[in-house]
Automatic annotation (TrEMBL):
Residue ranges of every copy of the 4Fe-4S ferredoxin-type domain listed in the record: 2-30
PANTHER family linked: FERREDOXIN
Domain of life: Archaea
General function of this protein: Ferredoxins are iron-sulfur proteins that transfer electrons in a wide variety of metabolic reactions.
Keywords from the named record: Electron transport, Iron, Iron-sulfur, Metal-binding, Transport
InterPro entries: 3Fe4S_ferredoxin, 4Fe4S_Fe-S-bd, Fe-S_cluster_ET
Keyword Nuclease in record: no
Annotated Pfam families: Fer4_15
Single Gene Ontology MF annotation: iron ion binding
Matches recorded under PROSITE patterns: 4FE4S_FER_2
Protein name from the UniProt record: Ferredoxin
Transmembrane portions of the chain: none
Requisite cofactors: [4Fe-4S] cluster
Length: 70
């Protein structure tokens, strides 16, 4: 299953990720984090099912390249 990583140091809080993929991303206090449902050990890491394809669009559209999906 794809792993999602958010680099909060690079995140501007623009909210693009949440707009494109609210199932996985939420912006709290001006910074993006993984929603509790898919979160791993901390706010910036998650594992999502293959069928949640919007993570790829969010990665592509983050203006600061703060999202990595692997
Ligand atoms: S799109 Fe990128 S910069 Fe904008 S809130 Fe999401 S992770 Fe942060």
């Amino acid at each position: 299953m794809p792993k999602v990583l958010i680099d909060q140091e690079s995140c501007s809080g623009s909210g693009n990720c949440m707009a494109l993929c609210s199932e996985v991303f939420e912006v709290v206090n001006g910074v993006s984090q993984v929603v509790e449902k898919y979160r791993d050990d901390n706010l910036t890491e998650g594992t999502v099912p293959e069928e949640v394809e919007c993570v790829h669009k969010a990665e592509e559209k983050c203006p600061f390249n703060a999202i990595l999906v692997k």
